[in-house]
Design brief:
Elements: H1 6-28, H2 36-41, H3 48-58, H4 62-75, H5 83-104, H6 111-116, H7 119-152, H8 156-205, H9 208-217, H10 236-253, H11 255-261, H12 267-275, H13 277-298, H14 316-324, H15 331-366, H16 371-393, H17 402-426, H18 432-456, H19 477-498, H20 517-536, H21 552-556, H22 564-570, E1 580-584, H23 585-592, H24 603-606, E2 621-625, H25 637-640
Length: about 650
């Protein structure tokens, strides 16, 4: 196998330096990250285009590049169907979860939990998110380290340490703006790198038609399976519905994504940034999935894993890249650098979000401080989490294939967290005791299922592979053919064993598809939370601020001819009418500066008339809805907590 040349190392170093220099640039220019608003929220004045690309890159980086091609190579095109789930969860986030957070203009998403329940629930959400992101960052650090190990021989441990240190360094200095623009650079390189691999690989095989023909012959092309069995790894239902729940935990309530939604000034712009992810996610998924088919077509007669050329499925793509792109010095280095850039920007997103929630949810409530000191503390917190992620990165290899490990992790931990926010937003009868019981029960359930599945390792059918065309040096062709047949029979035997029905724990709960983890975790949290709330005595609806509850029936049943009495019953007694704040026009200008246009977030919120374009009258009161977040935010930690 080819190895890195001097040109590869030079290009690899240049790419890493570009990523690091973006962080250093924003540390030394503009506001120089001297305030928490600048450091954690990018001044809340970024354009929606880079923010949209940053949303795309944050959780579709090295994990997607390495995991998706390996998944399709090993199991076939079933996973490609998860793209349908994107069309389900993005509208839900755009019109349910996103408006709630944007209306509150919080720094930490968990501030909602204290407003809706109490501080104890907020801390539960904080601890859950910290656990989720530290483990996820460990996987993200491990994935590119594994890739570099496959193509250069550099140890995984050294790669995790060096990349983790560089990433922590520039993230601590550059703040949110550095994170966003690094993501923009990284996602561009990702698309370019995958296109280069697919184009060259397809040419090597003999064209698109030959790739599909070989994939069909090798049982890698299977699209829709309507089997309702939740223990089957991939079906239409698990990929669409289960996948939607999994991605909803990421885009709906994850602090890293919520934080990005709020760095743009208007709700409409936040929605644009989110909606642009639908075609972006589809395109990147398709490129990575097709790359898996190209890799299979190339190695149809010599599976690198069975032949022990590589040690894990996640090394397939870098191994393939080194074989087909090494003809031009520098291309392998460019591709591996794109994987590392993706990992670094993803980890930087996690570090910045962890610094935000730790500062807002734990440090500031206990130790009040000036904004300047809070900024310094947040940088120290980011550096501390970077060291923690590096430590866990050394253990990430025990979690299995990186794609399944990442999605299972978001289901096990993110699912209960999604359930907690959903419980608060949709069920006025839920109270703080029910919320705590719900999330604790959800986490216990999911760790029981997840750890049990990891220990028991339920058998999974894999389509056949061959090593007939492999060259083993002194091994003759006869023994090579026998190894290929033996491998095929092993998989066939496993498939036959899976068809037997065993009604015990290993074949039911522990065999649950990892794509259902998020749905199970969130539903457990909601159901237990409602039962516990009922047992503890439901809150009186009139005491709940209607701005913290999603007006489900008002939004989705608005066209029905219902009486006011029926509407009140469907609203569970919650008053969704927002109070009006009376201020003079001069007071509005003093609070919001001379830019009167900032007072209007959207035409749908305030109408077509901007009161500040009219002739000023010092005594004439102007009514502003509380939903207009440019007025002093009634939900901010300074005024409401």
């Amino acid at each position: 196998m080819a190895t890195f040349t001097v040109a590869d190392y030079i290009l690899f170093s240049i790419m890493l330096c570009i990523s690091a220099s973006i962080g250093l640039f924003y540390a030394c220019t503009g506001g120089k990250q001297k305030t928490t608003t600048e450091y954690l929220m990018a001044g809340r004045n970024m354009s929606w285009i880079p923010v949209g690309l940053s949303l795309l890159a944050s959780f579709m980086s090295a994990i997607t590049l390495l995991g998706t091609p390996a998944e399709v190579y090993t199991f076939g095109t079933h996973y490609w169907m998860i793209g349908l789930s994107y069309a389900l969860f993005i509208p839900v986030v755009a019109y349910i979860y996103l408006p709630m957070f944007h209306k509150l203009q919080v720094t930490s998403a968990n501030e909602y939990l204290e407003l809706r329940f109490n501080r104890a629930v907020r801390l539960c959400g904080t601890i859950t998110y910290v656990l989720q992101m530290v483990l996820y960052m460990a996987i993200v650090l491990y994935a590119p380290a594994l890739a570099l190990n496959a193509v250069t021989g550099i140890s995984v441990e050294f790669s995790v340490l060096s990349v983790g240190i560089v990433c922590t360094f520039y993230t601590t200095l550059g703040g949110m703006k550095a994170v966003v623009w690094t993501d923009v650079f990284q996602i561009t390189v990702m698309f370019a790198g995958m296109l280069a691999v697919i184009i060259k690989g397809t040419m090597e095989v003999g064209g698109l038609s030959e790739v599909w023909a070989i994939a069909h012959r090798g049982e890698r092309v299977e699209w829709i399976d309507f089997n309702p069995d939740p223990t089957q790894r991939h079906t239409f239902w698990s990929l669409t519905i289960g996948g939607a729940f999994t991605w909803l935990t990421i885009y709906g309530v994850n602090q890293a994504q919520v934080q990005r939604y709020l760095v743009v000034p208007r709700l409409a712009d936040s929605r644009k940034a989110l909606l642009v992810n639908l075609p972006g996610l589809m395109a990147l998924l398709s490129l990575c999935a097709f790359a898996g088919l190209v890799i299979y077509a190339h190695y149809e007669g010599c599976d690198p894993i069975t032949a022990e050329y590589i040690l894990a499925n996640d090394q397939l793509l870098p191994y393939f890249v080194m074989e087909i792109l090494s003809f031009l010095p520098g291309l392998p280095g460019l591709f591996v650098a794109c994987i590392f850039s993706g990992a670094m920007s993803t980890v930087s997103s996690g570090l910045n979000s962890l610094a935000a929630i730790t500062l807002e949810d734990i440090v500031k409530p206990c130790y009040p401080m000036s904004d300047g000191r809070a900024t310094i503390v947040s940088k120290f917190i980011a550096a501390t989490y970077g060291a923690l992620a590096i430590g866990f990165g050394f253990l990430a290899g025990m979690m299995g294939p990186v794609l399944q490990a990442a999605l299972a992790l978001f289901g096990m931990i993110g699912g209960p967290l999604l359930g907690l926010f959903t419980l608060g937003m949709f069920f006025p009868c839920a109270n703080s005791r029910g919320a705590i019981c719900g999330i604790v029960s959800g986490l216990l359930m999911m760790f029981w299922v997840g750890i049990g599945a990891q220990v028991s390792q339920p058998s999974v059918y894999r389509p056949p592979v061959s090593i007939e065309d492999c060259v083993f040096g002194s091994v003759n062709n006869t023994s090579t053919t026998m190894m290929s047949n033996s491998t095929f029979l092993d998989f066939t035997t496993t498939a036959a064993a899976d068809e037997e029905i065993h009604w015990h724990l290993r074949d039911t709960l522990y065999s649950l598809s990892y794509l259902w983890y998020s749905a199970l975790g969130s539903s457990t949290t909601v159901v237990v939370g409602l039962l516990a709330s009922w047992l503890a005595g439901c809150e009186i609806s009139d005491t709940i601020d209607g701005r913290l509850i999603f007006p489900f029936f008002d939004r989705f049943c608005c066209c029905l001819p219902l009486s006011e009495k029926t509407k009140k019953l469907l609203r569970c007694g919650v008053n969704y009418k927002e109070p009006t704040i009376h201020v003079t026009q001069s007071q509005a200008i003093l609070k919001n500066g001379s830019k009167g246009s900032n007072l209007v977030d959207e035409e749908e919120d305030m109408g077509d008339t901007n009161p500040l374009t009219e002739e000023l009258d010092e005594t004439k009161p102007v009514e502003f809805s509380v939903e207009d977040e440019t007025i002093t935010n009634p939900f901010s930690s300074e005024t409401a907590l």
